[in-house]
User: Fold this.
Amino acid sequence: MPLLIEGRRVQLPQSAGDLVRAHPLLEERARLLRGQSVQQVGPQGLLYVQQRELAVTSPKDGSISILGSDDATTCHIVVLRHTGNGATCLTHCDGTDTKAEVPLIMNSIKSFSDHAQCGRLEVHLVGGFSDDRQLSQKLTHQLLSEFDRQEDDIHLVTLCVTAVNVKTAEIYRASFQDRGPEEELRAARALTGGPMVNIYDAKTEQLRIGPYSWVPFPHVDFWLQQDDKQILENLSTSPLAEPPHFVEHIRTTLMFLKKYPSPTNTLFPGNKALLYKKNEDGLWEKILSPRS
Assistant:
């Protein structure tokens, strides 16, 4: 019985709203989460996860204590945690390939060698809104359905939307000043259709970016000439719900794609990954790639 709420197998209804209403504890948790004030999270101890990225770590990590993501309009932020060893995965899903992404999330937790026999898997789904095209609703149903298909028992704890403190397992509303490192590069990969990738190695406490490749973005000059309204209406899945910085973020990403139409050799010399590690001040610092 894979997906459970309060120890009982979930019967998936037509909508997430029906599911929340059928389980008062879920409704109360969602209400409390929505009612929280937003906490400002600084760069120390933070690993920011962008769209189509995932990161997994545990309380033993000496560099990362907070996994976070935001700007999930039609997207969902998924947190999967094992209560026995504290291994925690956070990912930012946009519905590109949910069927492949959920097993990837599951395997990222199972990859920890100290996977505890005691404890249980708990999942938190947050983000999305009631858009006219029902993109959010479809993604919610996809995620619930795929978790329900897994062999392991998975306990649905939160169905609302966020950041997670790896040490305390606290999930809370947050905003982030620092979305790095390589924010533009990572955003460019997502905008060009890159698949979900794991960006963090908890064993070495290193952030690994790439090597990535993409084809030149179609009509990039045309899009850079468009006004804010055109960019918002055509390059967003949710024009009415985007944060104020959305258009600027897209423009910056498009300019990056114009500058680097083929990134393999220019951004990843020798086709090697870019590696980062937290320094003594808790900030990301680039380190040399290992020799091939």
In short: The first strand starts at residue 3 and ends at 5. The two ends are 45 Å apart (CA to CA).
